[in-house]
Amino acid sequence: MIQNPGVIKRFWLIFILGTISATGPLSIDLYLPALPEMTQNLQTQASLIQLSLSACLLGLAIGQLISGPLSDRYGRKKPLMIGFFIFALVSLLIAISHSVYLLIGLRFIQGLAGASGQVLSRAIASDLFSGPLLTRFYSLLSAVNGIFPVISPIIGGYMIKYVDWQGIFLLLALIGLIVTLAIWGGIKETLPQSSRISGSPVNSIVAMLKLLKGAKFLKLIMASGLVYGGLFSYISASSFVFQNYFQMNVASFGFLYAMNGIGIAIGSAIPGLLATRVSEIKQIRFVLGSTLLTACLLILSWFLLNQLLIVVGLVLLIVCQFGMLFTLTTSVVMNLSLKNSGGISALLGLSQNAIGGLMSPMVGIMGSQTYLPMAIAIAGCIGLSLILFTQITSANQAK
């Protein structure tokens, strides 16, 4: 395990792992501005084009359960290279496809392949670092990763002015190829043979599933998933809240969305600065408490001070704290120092995607003409997460 890597090596790791972990979200955000053109070009319904988004998200969730355990058996580098080579190939096939049904199927495979970057970037970091060093590294990794969702729609919107929608997927194919070559030449295998799970690949899958029998581990990944549930409550409702309710124009909302994305990136970097002075668990409990308080203030603002600037300020504060919690919860889970960190990362990612995906439609069902459902959903997710972390720390103190 590396304890004091050089500055150049550390920045290279942050850059390459940040890019690897962001390729999944990049494949979603980059093509969003092209959805109307794709609907017209493929002569289909908007609902079918939107299904291609759901297919990719499903692939990203399931793919983590495949690449994570496989990496515990065969190491990190081979699954990553295979995953991104398939990602590049499928992106190229999407660019030349003319059927919406083929597009949906290929997008699912693209998600499966892209998931390897999300799950294995966390596993590689836990192979190299532990304790406060891991928290510090995750904070920088999350900050880099947080930039991609901000710039991706901007890049996609700019591209669609000058090229057809196929050009976006050609760019993704190029990114996949470059990342494959970067992994091949720029990343060494981080999981030694002695630390791998022996036997057939089924053994690593069984070992991953056994993790769910541990009450502490289950509570940890559920608590982390609930934080993502809070984030997706904001993401799914934000356009309705600010554009429909507060009558923001598209440009103003785009600026606000980008500002909040930067807020997440800044928040992600803060725990690394505190890692050597304040334990991760103490940081989590404090930030969960402050986030819950902020969400309650957002609820109260609906009844007392229903003003745009107040809502914008409270939401910005909430998403900054989300960024802190992403770093902290990931570090605590991956610092468990169990043998199968690939499986741990896979289950962590599944919890985040599943709860986040569940909260998105729930907020819509609660109503889209007010920001109150969004605020209640955020408060509910963060409150449940705080309860779970309090139970975990109370159990540890009782031992």
Keywords, separated by commas or semicolons:
399 residues; mainly alpha; Growth Hormone, Chain: A; 2 domains; 0% strand; MFS_trans_sf; Sugar_transporter_CS
**What is the CATH class of the largest domain?**
Mainly Alpha
Number of domains: 2
The number of distinct helices, counting runs of at least 4 residues, comes to 14
Query: Tell me about the biggest sheet?
Result: none
Strand content: under 5%
Low-confidence sequence ranges: none
Mean pLDDT: 85
CATH architecture tag of the largest domain: Up-down Bundle
The secondary-structure class comes to mainly alpha
Order of helices and strands: HHHHHHHHHHHHHH
CATH superfamily of the largest domain: MFS general substrate transporter like domains
Q: Nearest-angstrom radius of gyration?
A: 21 Å
- The number of strands is 0
Within the CATH hierarchy, at the fold level, what is the topology of the largest domain?
Growth Hormone, Chain: A
How do the strands and helices of this protein lay out in sequence?
Layout: H1 7-29, H2 35-41, H3 46-74, H4 77-95, H5 100-128, H6 131-160, H7 166-186, H8 201-210, H9 215-245, H10 250-274, H11 280-303, H12 308-334, H13 341-366, H14 372-398
Helix pairs in contact: 1-5, 1-6, 1-7, 2-3, 3-4, 3-5, 3-8, 3-13, 4-5, 4-7, 5-13, 6-10, 6-12, 8-13, 9-12, 9-13, 9-14, 10-12, 11-12, 11-14
